[in-house]
Design goal:
Elements: E1 30-36, H1 40-51, E2 57-60, H2 69-72, H3 104-117, E3 124-125, E4 130-136, E5 141-146, E6 149-158, E7 180-183, E8 197-201, H4 207-214, E9 220-224, E10 231-232, H5 241-249, H6 253-266, H7 269-274, H8 280-293, H9 297-303, E11 315-316, H10 320-324, E12 329-332, E13 336-340, E14 343-346, E15 351-353, E16 356-359, E17 374-375, H11 382-389, E18 405-407, H12 420-441, E19 443-448, H13 450-464, H14 468-471, H15 493-499, E20 508-513, E21 523-525
Helix pairs in contact: 1-12, 12-15
The chain binds 3-acetylpyridine adenine dinucleotide (N01).
Residues 79-81, 163, 169, 184, 201-207, 224, 226-227, 313, 336, 360-363, 477 line the site of 3-acetylpyridine adenine dinucleotide (N01).
C-alpha cells in the first residue's frame, strides 16, 4: 500500500500578524512558559498570561501566523458549524460577525485582530517547528529543540490541537496519480479545478462544505462515500446592519445571545451523553431533510446512515443533498480498490477517469505523530506511552511522567455539540491557576500522581459507556485503537469549567525550590503540598 504525500501549500499569508513577531535579536533561549501552537488555544493562553502580568513566555508556531486550524483550512466553503457568537473568546465578543455561522476567513481575521489587540504577537515565533521536547529531571526544565535552535522552559504547554495532522488514505497506487491531489486542510489555491473531472474522497464535515462550493465549477464530480453521514438543515443567516449595531451598542445584548446559544446547545448533552433516545427526534428531522431534498429512492437509500444520529459528528448543510442530485455529480458508494495515473478504480472494477482528487479524509486525532516529539522523565515519548494505554490525561491537562507540562485541550476535552473555545478557556484557567500555585508555594515541579490520573480516566470511561458515541453503532475518529473514546468530554461543559477552575495541587507530586533565586534549582522532593 502507498500513501500520498502531504502538500503544504494552503496558508494564505496574513497581512497583519506576519509583520510582527519576536525580533530575531531578542529571541529568549529560556522562558518560564513555552507554548507549542498558536491557534485558538495557544493564543488564549498567551493572552491570559499577559493579562496576569506574565511576560516570560514564548509561543512556537510552525505556520507563518496565528490561527491554527482556521489558518490552515482555507478550502472553498470553509465555515464554522458552531454559531460565531459562541465560537469566539468570551473576553472578546465581536458584534460584526457577518452571519450566524461565520466563514473561515472571518474567523481567521478575528484571531489576527485579537492577537494584535492583546499585544502578544511579539511573543510568537512563527515558521518554527518544535522537533523535540525532553524533560530534564536534573535541571527541572524542558529542553526544546526547534528548527530555529534550542530553548529551555520551566513549564511546557501543548496547545497543538487535535485537528492539525492530516490523515491520508492508504490506497493502492495513490502516489502514482499524475493529476492534482491534496488534502482538504492543505488546499492548493494554485490549482484550477474549473472544467476538470474532480473526485472527493470522504463525506465528513470538510467534504460537505467543499462539494457544494466547487460542484458548479467542475465538469464532473465523483464523491466517494465510505459511510453516509447524518446531515441536518443549516440554520444560517446573514446579520442585518441594525442587528450588528444593536450588538455593538446595547449593553449585554451580545452576552445574552451567547448565553442563549450556549444553553440551547448544552441541552443536547442530555441526548449525547445520558439518554441517546432523546436524539431520535433529531434523527427524524434528518430523515425528513433527505426526503425533502432527494427524490430518487436509490440515492435516498445511499445517503441514509445505518447508525444512530450523534454517534459521529452531526453535519449541517442545505446544499449537500441538492448537489448530489445534479447530473454531473455521482455518489460512489463502492469502496476504492486502487488509484491509477489518471483514474480511481472501485472494487466492482469500474474505472472513473479524474483530473484532480481532493482528499477529505480527516485527521490523526488519537495517533498524532506530534506526540512522538515530546519525551517525559523516563525518556519515553507521549506517543509510546499513549500507544500502550490509549491517550489519557488527568482532567485532559496533565500526564503522569511528564512533569511541568499542561495541555490546553488534551485528551477527552473535545465536543460534538458546542464551542471548543469554551473548553479552551476552561483549560487556560487551569494553567493560570497552576502557575499561581507554583509561585505561591515556591514550586520547581509538579507532576500528576499516577493513581489520580488512573481513577479520573476510569470514571470518565465508565461515563462514556452510556453515551451515543459508544452505543450508536458507528466507527468514528472519536475512538482510539483500543476502542475507547479518548477524544470527547462526556458531560456538560459547565461541569468541565468547574473541574478546571483551580489547579488541585493534592493530585500532584511536587518539588520545591530550596533557593528561589538559585538558577541551578536545588530540588527537594516533597510528597504533595496541599
Ligand atoms: O474529517 P472526518 P473532516 N477511504 O474524519 C472518510 C472538524 N471540522 O475533515 O466515515 C475512503 O470527519 C471517512 O469515512 P468514514 C469537525 O470536528 C469542523 O471532514 O470513516 N474514505 C469520512 O467520511 C470534524 O468532525 C468543521 O467511513 C475515507 C471522511 O473521510 C473534523 O474536523 C469543518 C478513508 C473523513 O471525515 C474532521 O472533519 C470541517 C478512506 N481510506 C471539519 N478514510 C466546521 O466547523 C477516511 N475516509 C464546519
Amino acid at each position: 500500500m502507498t500513501q500520498v504525500a502531504i502538500r503544504r501549500t494552503a496558508t494564505k499569508p496574513s497581512s497583519r500578524s506576519e509583520a510582527k513577531s519576536v525580533p530575531s535579536a531578542e529571541i529568549p533561549r529560556h522562558v518560564g512558559v513555552l507554548i507549542i501552537g498558536g491557534g485558538f488555544a495557544g493564543l488564549a493562553a498567551a493572552i491570559r498570561l499577559t493579562k496576569d502580568g506574565r511576560r516570560d513566555f514564548l509561543v512556537i508556531e510552525r505556520g507563518s501566523e496565528v490561527g491554527g486550524t482556521w489558518r490552515d483550512n482555507t478550502y472553498p466553503g470553509a465555515a464554522c458549524d458552531v454559531p460565531s457568537h459562541l465560537y469566539s473568546y468570551s473576553f472578546e465578543p465581536n458584534p460584526n460577525w457577518s452571519r450566524s455561522f461565520s466563514p473561515q476567513w472571518e474567523i481567521q481575521d478575528y484571531l489576527r485582530r485579537t492577537a494584535v489587540k492583546y499585544d502578544v504577537l511579539d511573543k510568537h515565533l512563527f515558521d518554527t517547528e518544535v522537533t523535540s521536547a525532553q524533560w530534564d529531571d536534573g535541571a527541572a526544565r524542558w529542553m526544546i529543540q526547534t528548527t530555529r535552535g534550542a530553548f529551555t522552559s520551566d513549564v511546557l504547554v501543548s496547545a497543538i490541537g487535535a485537528l492539525c495532522e492530516p490523515a491520508l488514505p492508504d490506497i493502492e497506487g495513490i502516489d502514482t496519480f499524475q493529476g492534482e491531489i491534496f488534502h482538504s486542510s492543505r488546499w492548493n489555491h494554485a490549482s484550477e479545478l474549473r472544467g476538470k473531472r474532480v473526485a472527493i474522497i470522504g463525506t465528513g464535515a470538510s467534504a460537505v462544505q467543499i462539494g457544494p462550493a466547487i460542484a458548479d465549477e467542475v465538469a464532473h464530480l465523483d464523491v466517494y462515500q465510505r459511510t453516509a453521514p447524518w446531515v441536518m438543515p443549516r440554520r444560517d443567516r446573514a446579520y442585518s446592519k441594525p442587528e450588528s449595531l444593536a450588538y455593538k451598542h446595547v449593553p449585554g445584548l451580545q452576552w445574552l445571545a451567547r448565553q442563549a446559544i450556549y444553553w440551547g446547545r448544552e441541552v443536547l448533552v442530555l441526548g449525547f451523553a445520558f439518554q441517546p433516545k432523546i436524539l431520535l427526534g433529531a434523527q427524524r428531522m434528518a430523515e425528513r431533510h433527505i426526503q425533502k431534498q432527494i427524490e430518487d429512492d436509490e440515492l435516498r437509500k445511499a445517503v441514509t446512515p445505518n447508525w444512530q444520529i450523534g454517534c459521529k459528528r452531526i453535519l449541517i448543510s442545505n446544499d449537500w443533498y441538492p448537489m448530489l442530485t445534479k447530473d454531473h455529480v455521482e455518489l460512489v458508494t463502492d469502496g476504492i480498490a486502487e488509484v491509477r495515473e489518471n483514474a480511481i478504480v472501485t472494487r466492482d472494477g469500474t474505472v472513473r477517469e479524474v483530473d484532480a482528487i481532493v482528499v477529505a479524509t480527516g485527521f490523526h486525532v488519537t495517533d498524532s505523530p506530534g506526540w512522538e516529539a515530546i519525551k517525559g522523565a523516563d525518556g519515553r515519548s507521549l506517543g509510546e506511552v499513549w500507544r500502550e494505554r490509549g491517550q489519557q490525561a488527568y482532567k485532559g491537562a496533565a500526564v503522569a511522567g511528564f512533569p511541568n507540562m499542561l495541555f490546553v485541550v488534551g485528551p477527552n476535552t473535545g465536543l460534538g455539540h458546542s464551542s471548543m473555545v469554551y473548553m479552551i478557556e476552561s483549560h487556560v484557567n487551569y494553567l493560570a491557576s497552576a502557575l499561581e500555585e507554583m509561585d505561591e508555594h515556591g514550586l520547581a515541579t509538579f507532576e500528576v500522581r499516577e493513581d489520580r490520573q488512573r481513577d479520573y480516566n476510569q470514571n470518565l470511561q465508565k461515563s462514556m459507556k452510556q453515551t451515543i458515541w459508544t452505543t450508536g453503532g458507528c466507527a468514528s475518529w472519536y475512538l482510539d485503537a483500543h476502542g475507547n473514546n479518548t477524544t470527547l468530554w462526556p458531560s456538560f461543559t459547565f461541569l468541565f469549567r468547574r473541574l478546571t477552575r483551580t489547579f488541585d495541587l493534592a493530585a500532584y507530586r511536587t518539588t520545591a525550590r530550596t533557593d528561589r533565586s538559585d538558577a541551578a534549582l536545588t530540588l527537594v522532593r516533597e510528597e504533595g503540598v496541599a
